[in-house]
């Protein structure tokens, strides 16, 4: 039961002081009544007597408009004695007020004009169970022993006192029945002292909220508050750090730290010397990590909207966890992975699985079933986990983020490294040889350099994926969020999309250039010049950069899946982007096929008795088209179906396609277009000869070139180019396929 005081005495505004924080002494009711009667008798005779109250009210209204704090008026409880600068609510004032005062249970103080709550302000009050001080913007500090030896006091509430800066040490002393303490919306700059409260109740609730100037919780802040359990609700404060031993000497039941948006550090030993907490809430904080010590008794963990919390502590430190509400789906995979490790240890050491852990996750798609189905092949080894509690964890892993390593399958890990080595070394070798050779930079060499650079970017993408997979092996859940939302995945995604689009574009330009050159071999004025091809490739670079940058600015996203491809189709713009890119790649493949078919028809010589040359050309074209087809067809088919929200395979299985087929062009292009050509071998020998190697081979190639020029001069007259057949002409000009790289 709590009672509110009856109508109480009100003060008046002193004539000589600013009404902000200096009210005068509350007046005696008798004096006030007499003064009112005198004023009434003279009101009909003096005009000034009528205007004086109006002036006062006008001034009061103006002070409110000017945002002057309303400390000029307050209520003084009947059991207290008030003055302009102090308040005394003690046993003596309580007994002096009237006999019924001892039945009052609640003391509510609002709009106090005091600058401080003095020591012994509430000394030995009788039967008071609740003290509330609120909306008193003049109070700057609470003195030591202000709340002293109040043996009936159960609740203290200090709220909406924005000017309050300091609560002195020992302000709360000897309060054996205190069960609720709230300090909210103050201007305190230091964490208050609770060490002398000494409450004896079985459970005390401590609430601190909206104290934005307190930036840390120091060591031993709660030691001495009670020897029993404490529920702490510390929300929406300015905390940036919780120091070591902050909760020393406490029995924590619930610790709520939510909405402390600046809280980024909880020191490793913050819970050292404390028991609990059983429930921990760090939602909507800036925490980067949770302490690895002191969380073993946590049974309920809530960390939603904690976007900076990208990794969990070792799961052994959360051994009793039953329920978790986290921010990222990958964190829920942690419990499944840990449970699987416990199972493996149990199988290895022939020990009971139930003795190792009390947590369990439901089986996932990778085939991990209930552990009761394990056949230990030992009849005397009993395994009973039916009563073990599950870890209820949200958000659940979705189709885009299954509980598996980055590459998922072991054979993919090996293939990725093999493809990476060949793609990087092959394309790097092509770039080096073509750029440092002394030959003039022809159109073919220029295009091959662009193709090699594009495919090298794909190799670098695979290298990033392979390194990240190796680094996070068996613990990807603890790296998934940091990887997928960090710069690493963004760089990897940019590299792969840029590489893919530039490679496809360059292959299309190469096919078009060769088709145009061969079909117009007899027309010198129709040949492409270097500036034409340079402009085409500049457009290709711009297009590839644009396509690769769009997911970084919100059109789709590289962070949707672990392999950093733009698989986000949640919005219409993202869906249009993904489908458009895939369709453009299919169109480019069809253009390449068309160009090579036209090339074959152009060089086909039906009058030639031997078809060996045509067969060789057809084989080369078949290899080029086949590599493009096996690279593009499966990826495009399954990707377009997924982009249209009709997925035919899971993300786990799509990784097989992406590793086996997606980089095929980057792996094969340097060999098919450059390394396997005679011109490239000549360039390599010449480069090695300058370094002191392969002199004999280099001389042989040099003599071959000289002999070829002499033979051409003898067989062909410059005045009769029309005597050459079309087939022999383009062969002599060296503008077909692999020979075009010379």
What would you note in describing this structure?
The protein has 742 residues and is α/β, with parallel strands linked by helices. Among the domains are: 335-394, no CATH class; 427-684 and 695-733, Rhopdopsin 7-helix transmembrane proteins (Up-down Bundle), CATH 1.20.1070.10. Helix content is 41%, strand content 11%. It has helices at residues 29-41, 47-65, 91-97, 329-349, 410-436, 443-471, 480-485, 487-519, 530-549, 572-603, 612-643, 651-660, 664-675, 678-690, 695-715, 726-733, and strands at 9-10, 75-76, 81-82, 87-88, 106-110, 116-117, 130-134, 141-142, 147-148, 155-161, 166-167, 172-173, 180-186, 203-209, 216-217, 229-235, 241-242, 251-256, 265-266, 279-281, 300-302, 323-325, 392-394. A hairpin with a 4-residue loop joins β3 and β4. The radius of gyration is 41 Å and the shape is elongated. It starts with 8 loop residues before the first strand and ends in a 9-residue tail after the last helix.
CATH class of the domain at 427-684 and 695-733, named Mainly Alpha
**Main sheet specs:** 11 strands, parallel
Q: CATH topology of the domain at 427-684 and 695-733, which one?
A: Rhopdopsin 7-helix transmembrane proteins
Shape: elongated
Low-confidence stretches: 1-20, 22-52, 55-70, 352-389, 715-742
Strand fraction band?
A: 5-15%
**Widest β-sheet, arrangement of strands:** 5-7-10-13-14-16-18-20-21-22-23
CATH superfamily of the domain at 427-684 and 695-733: Rhodopsin 7-helix transmembrane proteins
Our Rg estimate from Cα atoms comes to 41 Å
Q: How many helices in DSSP terms? A: 16
Mean pLDDT score: 76
Helix content: 40-55%
Strand tally is: 23
Just name the CATH architecture of the domain at 427-684 and 695-733: Up-down Bundle
Measure the end-to-end span.
Answer: 100 Å
Secondary structure class reads alpha/beta
Organism: Scomber scombrus
Function: Receptor for lutropin-choriogonadotropic hormone. The activity of this receptor is mediated by G proteins which activate adenylate cyclase.
Subcellular location: Cell membrane
Family: Belongs to the G-protein coupled receptor 1 family. FSH/LSH/TSH subfamily.
């Amino acid at each position: 039961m709590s009672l509110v005081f009856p109508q109480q005495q009100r003060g008046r505004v002193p004539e000589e002081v600013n009404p902000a924080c200096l009210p005068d002494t509350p007046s005696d009711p008798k004096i006030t009544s007499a003064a009112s009667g005198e004023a009434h008798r003279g009101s009909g005779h003096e005009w000034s007597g009528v205007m004086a109250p109006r002036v006062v009210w006008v001034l009061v209204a103006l002070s409110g408009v000017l945002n002057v704090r309303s400390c000029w008026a307050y209520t003084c409880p009947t059991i207290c004695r008030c003055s302009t600068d102090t308040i005394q609510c003690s046993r003596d004032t309580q007994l002096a007020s009237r006999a019924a005062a001892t039945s009052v249970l609640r003391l509510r103080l609002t709009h106090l004009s005091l600058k401080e709550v003095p020591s012994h302000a509430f000394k030995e009050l009788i039967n008071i169970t609740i003290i509330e001080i609120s909306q008193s913007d003049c109070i700057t500090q609470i003195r030591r022993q202000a709340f002293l030896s109040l043996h009936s006091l159960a609740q203290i509430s200090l709220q909406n006192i924005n000017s309050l800066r300091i609560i002195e040490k020992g302000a709360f002393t000897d309060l054996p029945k205190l069960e609720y303490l709230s300090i909210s919306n103050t201007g305190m700059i230091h964490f208050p002292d609770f060490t002398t409260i000494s409450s004896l109740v079985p459970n005390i609730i401590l609430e601190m909220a909206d104290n934005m100037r307190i930036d840390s919780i120091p060591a031993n802040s709660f030691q001495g508050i009670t020897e029993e359990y404490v529920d702490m609700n510390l929300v929406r404060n300015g905390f940036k750090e919780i120091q070591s031993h902050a909760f020393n000497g406490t029995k924590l039941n619930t610790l709520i730290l939510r909405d402390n948006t600046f809280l980024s550090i909880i020191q490793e030993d913050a819970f050292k010397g404390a028991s609990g907490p059983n429930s921990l809430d760090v939602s909507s904080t800036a925490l980067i990590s949770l302490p690895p010590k002191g969380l073993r008794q946590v049974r309920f963990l809530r960390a939603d909207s904690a976007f900076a919390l990208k990794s969990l502590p070792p799961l052994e430190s959360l051994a009793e966890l039953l329920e978790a509400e986290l921010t990222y789906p990958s964190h829920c995979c942690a419990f499944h992975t840990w449970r699987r490790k416990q199972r493996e240890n149990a199988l290895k050491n022939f020990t009971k699985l139930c003795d190792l852990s009390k947590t369990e996750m439901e089986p996932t798609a990778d085939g991990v079933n209930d552990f009761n189905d394990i056949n230990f092949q030992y009849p005397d080894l009993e395994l009973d986990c039916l009563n073990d509690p599950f870890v209820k964890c949200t958000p659940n892993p979705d189709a885009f983020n299954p509980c598996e390593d980055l590459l998922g399958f072991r054979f993919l890990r090996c293939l990725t490294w093999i493809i990476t080595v060949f793609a990087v070394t092959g394309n790097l070798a092509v770039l080096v040889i073509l750029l440092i050779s002394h030959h003039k930079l022809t159109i073919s060499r220029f295009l091959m350099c662009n193709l090699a650079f594009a495919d090298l970017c794909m190799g670098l993408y695979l290298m990033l994926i392979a390194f990240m997979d190796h680094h996070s092996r068996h613990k990807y859940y603890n790296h998934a969020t940091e990887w997928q939302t960090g710069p690493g995945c963004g760089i990897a995604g940019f590299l792969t999309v840029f590489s893919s689009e530039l490679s496809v574009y360059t292959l299309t330009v190469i096919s078009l250039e060769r088709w145009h050159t061969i079909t117009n071999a007899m027309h010198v004025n129709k040949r492409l010049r270097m500036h034409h091809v340079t402009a085409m490739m500049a457009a290709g670079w711009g297009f590839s950069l644009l396509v690769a940058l769009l997911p970084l600015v919100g059109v789709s996203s590289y962070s949707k899946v672990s392999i950093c491809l733009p698989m986000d189709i949640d919005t219409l713009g993202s869906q249009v982007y993904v489908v458009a890119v895939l369709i453009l790649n299919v169109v480019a493949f069809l253009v390449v096929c068309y160009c090579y078919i036209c090339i074959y028809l152009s060089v086909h010589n039906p009058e030639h008795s031997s078809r060996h040359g045509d067969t060789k050309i057809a084989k080369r074209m078949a290899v080029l088209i086949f590599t493009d087809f096996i690279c593009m067809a499966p990826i495009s088919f399954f990707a377009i179906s997924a982009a249209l929200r009709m997925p035919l395979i899971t993300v786990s299985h799509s990784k097989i396609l992406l590793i086996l087929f997606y980089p095929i062009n980057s792996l094969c292009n340097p060999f098919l277009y450059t390394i396997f050509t005679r011109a490239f071998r000549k360039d390599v020998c010449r480069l090695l000869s300058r370094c002191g190697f392969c002199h004999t081979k280099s001389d042989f190639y040099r003599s071959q070139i000289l002999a070829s020029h002499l033979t051409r001069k003898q067989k062909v007259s410059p005045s009769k180019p029309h005597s050459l057949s079309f087939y022999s002409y383009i062969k002599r000009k060296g503008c077909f396929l692999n020979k075009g790289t010379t």
